[in-house]
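User: Reviewer 2 asked us to show a designed sequence for the structure in our supplementary figure. I'm pasting the structure tokens here. Could you produce the per-position amino acids so we can include them in the response letter?
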């Protein structure tokens, strides 16, 4: 269980103070030795955890990102020009750089915070700037190292307060006043010599992106003593030490070929201009891009020997990268045809500002270095004879579809290729690479795509070609067989002609667009020749669909047909015969 009881932390810290005092009291250069011991104490404090009631120290790994808290040091600085943060303008900021403003003792003295006699206390406020670029969880013992002196040997009280504030000035979190554990060579007293004070307290808080951390320190030694707070000086580097669980790290590493195509497969027998491996790494840092000191590339061959060793990667991101959460870095390796074949390991390392300063002091970046690995292969070029199946939106092959291919060297077919009766385009003896396809149907582009070839396929290429099924009906809802159906484009070009089947249907395969349907039918109805036409304009085709066209004039009224009147005539003659024959017989008898 992680430590939460303040009294337990203070007991541990006080035990350490006894050892610090034994060391510090005999030193003639107190502030220098205190700095050295403080660095050790800071690391111990930030890694301290409890398991039950026993004191544990977690080992920090410098390999891959694990989320272990690291003692991130942010230094207190002064700016000549104010910046806007936390809803106000301020010249007092904190960040991870050691770009100190006051390089001499005289400058540090002249610009220190000063409390004259007569005032009881001094309060200093500093703001993390730039604002956080991403979420940061700070969990563990928070520490402030403050350099202070007074005009006399006096007891003092120290009070800390932390706040999370948005850029507009809204306070999202307030720790409230905290009485910290105080570690120095003279305890909680102040004296004429400048002393370093380690003010520590256990806290946990998750900071949101685009907010700032405000650190407020109050020193109260009464009104009878002057007080100075020193900062932004290499001799008096006042700072906050924050046990952060989020920090600079590589989150993604990819490899790219000579043509900027992402791939993990390269070939030793490529031509010289193609034997190039480009590595790109996406690096995130919640403190902002300014905190990324360097990104480095190492490549190990199949025998685990480095062919690239700590090559500096170049930032390729545009925009305000200093304040950004994510940045892209790039480096390339040109290899010879004699290179070993097999699997290669890419290792990208990210070092933040704390790592850079740690290496200057300790000769090691740990724990402020993070790694990410990636694999790629260098092999032999193989040739393929790929097949490409061109299909419509329903997955049905498109015979005679026109296809123009763009080759890996950038050239494009002048004359189109035509898909076979089964819808295939076939290539032979080609390199694995990206091939561009422009597919046309009815002289309309229905797909423009890129296919990466790494086998014989087949590769299916879908298109925006849809089935339009037209059903022709008479005005009595009967199916019309043998009607001619013509489909026109908006340009009035005819794109299809078909004759309806026994169900009155005709099918077309059309590119996406708007079409007019025209139906012509000629036939015989009750011995009368009939010719009718019907149209249906502005049919939008963006999916396979069906449309009905009704022949309003077919069938015609029955009384308008020759057959009808022939029947009438036959009936009339029959009636006359029936009536006239008896009359004739009577006359013959008379």
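Assistant: Here is a per-position design you can include in the supplement:
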């Amino acid at each position: 269980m992680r430590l939460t009881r303040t009294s337990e932390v203070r007991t541990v810290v006080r035990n350490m103070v006894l050892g610090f005092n034994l060391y510090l009291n005999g030193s003639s250069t107190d502030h220098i030795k205190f700095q050295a011991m403080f660095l050790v104490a800071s690391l111990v404090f930030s890694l301290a955890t409890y398991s039950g009631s026993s004191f544990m120290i977690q080992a920090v790994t410098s390999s891959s990102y694990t989320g272990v808290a690291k003692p991130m040091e942010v230094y207190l600085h002064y700016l000549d020009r104010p910046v806007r943060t936390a809803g106000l303008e301020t010249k007092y900021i904190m960040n991870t750089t050691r770009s100190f403003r006051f390089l001499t003792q005289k400058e540090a003295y002249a610009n220190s915070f000063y409390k004259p006699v007569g005032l009881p206390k001094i309060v200093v406020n500093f703001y993390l700037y730039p604002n956080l670029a991403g979420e940061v969880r700070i969990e563990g013992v928070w520490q402030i190292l403050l350099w202070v002196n007074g005009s006399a040997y006096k007891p003092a009280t120290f009070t800390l307060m932390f706040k999370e504030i948005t850029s507009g000035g809204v306070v999202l979190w307030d720790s409230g006043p905290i009485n910290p554990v105080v570690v120095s060579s003279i305890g909680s007293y102040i004296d004429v010599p400048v002393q370093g004070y380690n003010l520590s307290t256990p806290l946990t808080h998750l900071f949101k992106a685009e907010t700032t951390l405000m650190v407020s320190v109050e020193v109260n030694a009464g009104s009878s003593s002057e007080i100075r707070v020193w900062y932004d000086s290499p001799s008096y580097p006042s700072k906050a030490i924050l046990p952060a669980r989020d920090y600079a790290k590589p989150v993604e590493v990819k490899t790219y070929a000579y043509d900027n195509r992402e791939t993990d497969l390269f070939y030793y027998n490529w031509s010289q201009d193609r034997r190039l491996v480009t590595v790109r790494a996406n690096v995130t840092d919640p403190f902002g891009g300014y905190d990324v000191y360097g990104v480095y590339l190492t490549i190990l061959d199949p025998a685990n020997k480095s062919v690239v060793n700590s090559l500096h990667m170049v930032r390729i991101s545009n925009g305000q990268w200093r304040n950004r959460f994510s940045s892209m870095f790039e480096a390339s390796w040109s290899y010879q045809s004699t290179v070993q074949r097999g699997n290669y390991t890419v290792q990208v390392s990210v070092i933040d500002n704390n790592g850079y300063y740690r290496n200057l002091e300790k000769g090691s970046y740990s724990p402020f270095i993070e790694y990410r690995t990636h694999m790629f292969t260098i092999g032999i070029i193989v040739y393929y004879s790929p097949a490409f199946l061109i299909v419509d939106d329903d997955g049905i092959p498109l015979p005679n579809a026109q296809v123009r291919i763009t080759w890996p060297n950038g050239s494009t077919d002048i004359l189109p290729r035509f898909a076979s009766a089964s819808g295939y385009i076939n290539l032979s003896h080609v390199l694995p690479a990206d091939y561009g396809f422009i597919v046309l149907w009815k002289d309309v582009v229905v797909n423009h795509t890129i296919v990466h070839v790494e086998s014989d396929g087949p590769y299916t290429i879908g298109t925006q070609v849809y089935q339009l099924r037209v059903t022709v009906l008479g005005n009595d809802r009967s199916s019309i067989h043998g009607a001619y159906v013509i489909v026109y484009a908006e340009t009035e070009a005819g794109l299809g002609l078909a004759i309806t089947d026994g169900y009155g249907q005709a099918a077309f395969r059309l590119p996406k667009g708007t079409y007019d349907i025209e139906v012509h039918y000629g036939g015989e109805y009750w011995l009368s020749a009939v010719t009718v036409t019907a149209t249906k304009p502005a049919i939008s085709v963006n999916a396979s669909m069906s449309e009905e066209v009704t022949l309003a004039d077919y069938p015609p009224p029955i009384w308008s047909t020759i057959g009808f009147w022939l029947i009438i005539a036959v009936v009339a003659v029959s009636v006359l015969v029936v009536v006239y024959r008896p009359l004739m017989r009577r006359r013959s008898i008379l």
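For the response letter, you might also mention the following. Residues 1-65 have pLDDT under 50 and may be disordered. The longest helix spans residues 562-589.
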